[in-house]
């Protein structure tokens, strides 16, 4: 049996990006430190995956200061929601065909 994987999005193949998107889709926003803690990754690892998602219009960031400390929060874009939902539907179809 041939499995159709054409609906899968390459941006969500990595477990960290999949985790980032899963968190952001169900939350209005999430800051860097909370994402890092939730996913159990290093600063550099998280930053590189966030950069890829942001450069491709799947998430957006906003920077602010809380007291004197910088804080970067992330939220999913409408395009990101649509692409992530399509990726999940494609995964569901693969599972159904097995």
Q: Can you give a write-up of this model?
A:
The protein is an alpha+beta fold. The protein has one domain (10-97): Orthogonal Bundle (Arc Repressor Mutant, subunit A). Helix content is 54%, strand content 18%. It is built from four helices and three strands. Strands 1-3-2 form a three-stranded antiparallel sheet. It is elongated, with a radius of gyration of 15 Å. The model has no long low-confidence stretch (mean pLDDT 94).
Structural key phrases:
single chain; 98 residues; alpha+beta; Arc Repressor Mutant, subunit A; 3-stranded antiparallel β-sheet; 3 strands
SSE blueprint:
Elements: H1 15-26, E1 30-31, H2 32-39, H3 43-55, E2 59-66, E3 69-76, H4 78-97
Antiparallel strand pairs: 1-3, 2-3
What's this entry about, in short?
54% of the residues lie in helices and 18% in strands. It is an alpha+beta fold and 98 residues long.
**Secondary structure: helix percent:** 40-55%
Structural class by SSE content:
alpha+beta
For the record, the CATH architecture stands as Orthogonal Bundle
Number of strand segments: 3
**Helical segment count:** 4
CATH class bucket: Mainly Alpha
Q: SSE order in H/E notation? A: HEHHEEH
So what's the overall shape?
elongated
Domain count: the total is 1
Give the oligomeric state of the chains in this entry, treating copies of one chain as homo and distinct chains as hetero. single chain
């Amino acid at each position: 049996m041939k499995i159709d994987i054409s609906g899968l999005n390459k941006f969500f193949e990595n477990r960290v990006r999949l985790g980032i998107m899963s968190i952001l889709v169900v939350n209005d926003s999430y800051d860097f430190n909370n994402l890092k803690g939730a996913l159990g990754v290093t600063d550099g690892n998280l930053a590189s995956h966030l950069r890829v998602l942001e450069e491709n219009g799947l998430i957006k960031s906003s920077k602010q200061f809380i007291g004197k400390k910088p804080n970067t929060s992330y939220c999913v874009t409408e395009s990101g929601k649509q692409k992530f939902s399509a990726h999940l539907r494609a995964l569901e179809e693969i599972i159904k065909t097995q």
